[in-house]
Amino acid sequence: MAIELIKEKYTGPINTVEIGAGQGMVKLGGETALPFLFREGDMPNKPLIALEVQDCEPSDWADPVRDAFGDAVKDPVKWAKKCVSEFGAKILCVRLQSAHPDFGNGSIDASVERLKAIAKEVKVPLIVIGCGDDDKDNELLPKASQAMKGSNCLFGIATQANYKTLTATCLADGHSIIADSPIDVNIAKQLNILMADMGFDQKRIVMHPTTTSLGYGMEYVYSIMERARLAAFIGDASLAMPFILFVGQETWKVKEAKEFGEKQGINWEIATAAAMVQAGADIQVLRHPRSAVSITKYIDKLMER
Amino acid sequence: MALTGLDIYKLLPKTNCKACGFATCLAFAMALAQKKTSLDKCPTVSEEAKTALESASQPPIKLVTIGTGDNRLEIGNETVMYRHEQKFYHPTVIGILVEDSLGAKELDARLNKIKALSFERVGIAIKPELVCIKNSSGNIDRFVEAVTKAISITGRAIALESKDPAAIEAALKASKDKRPLIIHEGASDIGPFAKIAKDNSLPLAITCSDIDEAAAMTDKAKKAGVEEIILNFKGDNISGKVQEFTYARRAALKKNFRPLGYPVMAFTAQNDEGLELCEAVSYVAKYAGIVIVKNVEKDLILPLLVTRQDIYTDPQKPVQVEPKIYEIGKVGPNSPVIVTTNFSITYFTVAGEIEASKVPTYLICTDADGMSVLTAWAAEKFTAEKITQMLNDSGIGSMVKHKNIIIPGYVSVLSGKLEEVSGWKVIVGPREASGIPVFLRNLK
């Protein structure tokens, strides 16, 4: 006699967010159960992996990651094309780093031009991230948003201290937004509500629960994600957003990834991303193309029912 | 699953005979629920009630031990589905597969590699604790030889896997006192394996494809007298195994379903290196008591061990270091003084960067209940007053000739108050530890 499975029945599905327009369009979220528990719920959209490119040479990136792209890192368009044609990226994350005061303090118009050039050459959906300096981003992101109008990008990152400009501009240009929540379910809820108050559809928000590397507090994020997911499933709509994580950015910062050879670095990125997949990540931005290939294969395996 | 006083009361005779020393059966039931007395004090309790109470007093997932002495490993006895509910208690044992079909040279090389896999991270020694010898050769002598070598070369706890009960018996002659785990290889009859496990009082892993088969087999093993059982799920479908693990754990924790009340384990099935790592990480995250991997390379094993360390960290109790002065390098009276909190990851990250800077430095960790800098600041555990107290109590003032204190960039807001309260001159350091080497080298 078959043992009766103890299944959890939830009422609130995770929102589905679309990124991109036309053929390459991808969907995130839509889960009705914890990851890969196909016997009690659905996971209509498989978790996605994006590769990260920058609009300027990534001077602060670890050598193994830069080397993986060769000379292409000197030319953002070449770099983006290489990610798609050579490494099979289905989605790209473009970080507009060049405008940051610590990274050359480049002109905003030049940065937007490079973004446009990338968008023209690669036909995959784009995630567009500001340089990280609030003042610069409040000038840069509205222009980038206008330039990408109609492309249905995912823009970021809205923080509790700085969300209004980005929210207004994405509302006007029809983009989705990444909302930051520093390891705190309550801040996540509050920011999502504040953006909704500006008229921004909550179903166009992707949540960034903070990213930490394996060995440096990865478990905090793991548990925050599980808690937020469980709360969303029982009906808390202010937490029913898909999760995005910037695993490449965080893992390649740590000593264990940078200083013990390329393979260990890649494995550090892979192990962190695999754990995040198990915690419910919907999309992860990675840096090393080989990590991205491995995690994509892993997700395909997991989706076999 | 623990019964409440009222649950127990329903099972008692309700005669209020006072023979147990309590005024009423209800009072006795309440004391039982708090484990302040024992059921044998009741002279008239029914057999049925005894069985029910005994089963309820056992942990929902059996504790299983493998190995002896320094190699003693414990798995099982878990109580929650999610780490945030409480914590996961017994970290997944990481094992390495060794097939006895290897040539003598390859076997020695592999065992020596395993022996070398031992690391220290955030002050804790970590390693793959288990070596699983598999009788792939089908030859008993080779199996015994591989087991003997595995014990002498690696010094780790071992597991014995074979289709052939006679091979297990032969290997036990050389390994019985090490308390190995016996792994019944799938498709063979569990009976003879159960008998060996019982006769030698050893733990037994039964190999099954799903929880239905698992329950049938544990029932059989239990009836044969085996106490410590592990459910080994086979197959190469990763999410399939995650689901079997999840539903077995739920049945044990939520329904106290005895036939599945055992720790679970799996071997990795993926051959591609990156995929094997992903697979092993999945099982560590989702409840496995043991994961046995094929890869023996340090650059894969270390991230796997750290994953295990992360997932099994107690969420309520951050790992701390002792609040005190740490001398990094050959410090002298002119060495800089850095202050931070006693969260272990903070300490090890900052200490590592100071080392990398090659500038001898005093690092003072204040008692912030093991919180990281920003969290501690927000929770008022890392304040001007607390830092001042630490400066005074630690005696740093008599160790250096200057009165300059470097604080983390994230708490630059503390500067004014700290200067005022402590009388030390505050220098604001970098926000991220990675900025420390440049910062220290440029410090006048």
How would you describe what is shown here?
The complex is a heterodimer of chains A (305) and B (444). Chain A has 305 residues and is of the alpha/beta class. Chain A has one domain (17-302): TIM Barrel, CATH 3.20.20. Chain A contains eleven helices and ten strands. Chain A has an eight-stranded parallel beta sheet with strand order 8-7-6-5-4-3-10-9. The longest helix of chain A has 18 residues, at 262-279. Chain A starts with 15 loop residues before the first strand and ends with a helix. Chain B is α/β, with parallel strands linked by helices and 444 residues long. Chain B has 16 helices and 17 strands. In chain B, helix 6 (165-175) links the parallel strand 7 and strand 8 (181-184). In chain B, helix 4 (104-116) packs parallel to helix 5 (140-154). The radius of gyration of chain B is 28 Å and the shape is flat. At the A-B interface, helix 7, helix 10 and helix 11 of A face helix 8, helix 9, helix 10, helix 11 and helix 12 of B.
Summarize the structure.
The complex is a heterodimer of chains A (305) and B (444). In chain A, 41% of the residues lie in helices and 14% in strands.
